[in-house]
Write a structure and sequence with these properties.
Shape: elongated
CATH topology of the largest domain: Jelly Rolls
Order of helices and strands: EEEEEEEEEEEEEEEE
Largest sheet: 6 strands, antiparallel
CATH class of the largest domain: Mainly Beta
Structural class: mainly beta
Radius of gyration: 21 Å
Distance between the termini: 35 Å
Number of domains: 2
Number of strands: 16
CATH architecture of the largest domain: Sandwich
Strand content: over 45%
Length: 181
Amino acid sequence: MANIILNGKTVVTQTGNDEPVLGSNVILTNDSLASATFPAGHVIQVVYAESTTATSITSTSQGSGTSTGLSATITPVSSSNKFFISYVGSFMLAQHSAPGLSVEIYDGSSVVATENQNWGIYVNGDGDEYGNAYKYPFQTYITPSSSGSITYTVRAWKTGNAATAQPSSRLSTLTIMEIQQ
């Protein structure tokens, strides 16, 4: 029999070739650890979403962006923890002189992260550009806005002619990690 013991408490036991068993002092609720305490910096949970559905971006103003069609829902284990949000979006900007696009993360009631009025994608051109396709990485580190379930939606706004998220079925992803504080 093998045991993993931390500070005198048995966390995991294993007999022979049997599967390891969590100790009775480690409580799982709905497949989530309910009683474990992790040191600061540990990833507590991860949610992931992806989309390949083409979505037209029509908004032209920060704070009221068009949904890219990509969102993820997470319930923080503790509202004092932080969320590391990582987004990688696929976009295409139509031919236009100096087209631009930026994203924001919206929690259902307010914008919690954005480019602060700078363009995340900007083409300083004369209008001869064509088929401007980009991968747009955006990361932020925030405090959850509540202790309940939160849905974060990626929204975008643009300048210039047409803009499309996930053009030609290109993949966009959203990952949210809860980080122990």
